[in-house]
Design brief:
Strand order of the largest sheet: 2-1-3-4-5-6
Strand content: 15-25%
Bound molecules: S-adenosyl-L-homocysteine, iron/sulfur cluster, FE3-S4 cluster
Shape: globular
Structural class: alpha/beta
Largest sheet: 6 strands, parallel
Number of strands: 21
Helix content: 25-40%
Radius of gyration: 23 Å
Distance between the termini: 58 Å
């Protein structure tokens, strides 16, 4: 596919906007909506687009129980994510009994899974709308059909993926924002379903990203997080990721983060950019998945334990204060106790600020689905519990070591626990609670760290 044909044409986008206007003319102020978002930041950002479309239709947000339109943006990365989505949707049937005009829609990654959309459409007549990730930009057209023709719509396209620019967006946060830089994944880690449901890697154009970042800056956004399944393989019209990062940094938003980085593609140039560009925060999510090279090979991760540890050393040499976080899968098919011990020892060596840990979940259609798996479930649970305990101790030690430091905190909310307290994150990403006024929301404030709790720090504002 040529690069240009990746992009949905301006005409097609304009016709979706026409559907939005038409709906607005007939229904503005008369309907409300609610979106439930499961899964990762990609889905969060997609839901912000769906929200933006419905805002432009003249609809207000409402609680799920009262809303006229309820959308479920689903995830299928692990079985429990999928069960949660299904359970939620089936429960909506009850809601609809009291609210027969309610429009129920299901979208997102799970709909891109082979056979799932067809199954839901056939089995659950109370679902009015089904669409996938590759055709989500056509939501206005689908809703238009439902509102004007009172029919059910199910449309999911199998596709390598597209890029739709210039869609409406309603951001969920005021001072921080997600910015997609690329979509899809080409890595085909043997356990993972994402490449099947999100399509091939495709990068947005540099100028489209920069203009989005500029408008966020004009709107007073203080922090952006660049999103991609593998941001290190960004290549939008000849610009590589480190280069893109420098250009984004020049726009002047005070804080920039990005995720996710694949260790196999993390370049020296990116390490240099993290060291040299002041508004790139000293924080990196670098999923390791396993600490044993043989398991990594069978996961198709294409790096070894040694390569990963070397990367960590080079990152810490360049950015000594860097906070690392990770994802780890326990109980990959055939993982022996010894191989698991390598994951434990890697975690002890790297000392992550935090780690997301998962028990391997078999995904139909992936390579690992056919790997023999003879480790009993209770043994896998014991392993993950040991890993969680180890990581908790390390996280606590790292948090304790922050006490006494002075940090610049970006205030992003009020503390839920202590009245009169506000909260925000340090450059490294630790959450700090401190006494303060809500007028400081969205401001960078110097804070003295006084103590460490279980997951957060406590401090006080330093008055000059
Ligand atoms: N693109 C990102 C992560 C996407 S999914 C990356 O490559 O890091 C988020 C995390 O879910 C993965 O890092 C992995 O740890 C976990 N995961 C993915 N598939 C899984 C599976 N089948 N079973 C258990 N965990 C899985
Ligand atoms: Fe999945 Fe691997 Fe792609 Fe991440 S890099 S989305 S884990 S296939
Ligand atoms: Fe889930 Fe899709 Fe993200 S499968 S983890 S929501 S890309």
């Amino acid at each position: 596919m040529s690069r240009e044909s990746l992009f949905i044409s301006e005409n097609d986008i304009a016709s979706q906007k026409q559907y939005i206007n038409d709906i607005n003319t007939h229904f503005s102020g008369r309907l409300t909506y609610h979106i439930v978002t499961l899964g990762c930041q990609m889905n969060v950002r997609d839901s912000e687009t769906l929200s933006g479309m419905m805002r432009d239709m003249g609809f207000a947000q409402a609680e799920k129980e009262q809303a006229d339109i309820v959308l479920y943006n689903t995830c299928c990365v692990r079985e429990n994510a999928e069960n949660r989505a299904l359970g939620n949707v089936i429960w909506l049937k009850e809601l609809k009994k009291n609210h027969p005009d309610m429009i129920i829609g299901v979208c997102g990654c799970m709909m891109q899974e082979k056979g799932v959309a067809e199954h839901l459409h056939a089995q659950y007549p109370f679902i009015d709308l089904i669409f996938g990730t590759h055709n989500a930009y056509r939501f206005p057209e689908y809703l238009h059909r439902i509102l004007f023709e009172r029919c059910r719509v199910a449309d999911v396209v199998a596709s390598d993926g597209i890029i739709a620019e210039d869609l409406p967006v309603m951001r969920s946060e005021k001072h921080s924002a997600f910015v997609n830089i690329m979509y899809g994944c080409n890595n085909f880690c043997s356990y993972c379903i994402v490449p099947y449901v999100r399509g091939r890697e495709r990068s947005r154009r540099v100028e489209d990203i920069l203009s989005e970042v500029r408008s966020l800056k004009d709107a007073g956004v203080m922090e952006i997080t660049l999103l991609g399944q593998n941001v290190n393989s960004y290549n939008g019209g000849g610009s590589e990721f480190a280069n893109l990062l420098r250009r984004i940094s020049d726009v002047g938003i005070p804080r920039i983060r990005f995720m996710t980085s694949h260790p196999k593609d993390l370049s020296d140039d990116l390490i240099a950019a993290m060291r040299d560009v002041p508004n790139v925060m000293p924080q990196l999510h670098l999923p390791v998945q396993a600490g044993n090279s043989e398991i990594l090979r069978r996961m198709n991760r294409r790096y070894t334990r040694e390569h990963y540890l070397d990367l960590v050393n080079r990152l810490r040499d360049a950015v000594p204060e860097i906070g690392l976080t990770t994802d780890i899968i326990v109980g990959f098919p055939g993982e022996t106790l010894e191989q698991f011990e390598d994951t434990m020892s890697l975690v002890e060596k790297v000392r992550y600020d935090s780690a997301y840990t998962f028990i391997f979940s078999l995904r139909r259609g992936t390579a690992a689905a056919s790997y023999p798996d003879d480790t009993p479930a209770d043994e896998k649970s014991r392993r993950i519990q040991r890993l969680i305990d180890l990581q908790q101790n390390i996280s606590q030690e790292i948090l304790d070591a922050q006490v006494g430091k002075k940090e610049i905190v970006l205030v992003d909310g009020q503390s839920t626990r202590d009245a009169g307290y506000i909260c925000g994150r340090t450059p490294r990403g630790h959450m700090v609670n401190f006494p303060g006024n809500v007028e400081l929301l969205g401001k960078l404030v110097p804070v003295q760290i006084l103590s460490a709790g279980r997951n957060t720090l406590k401090g006080e504002i330093i008055h000059a």
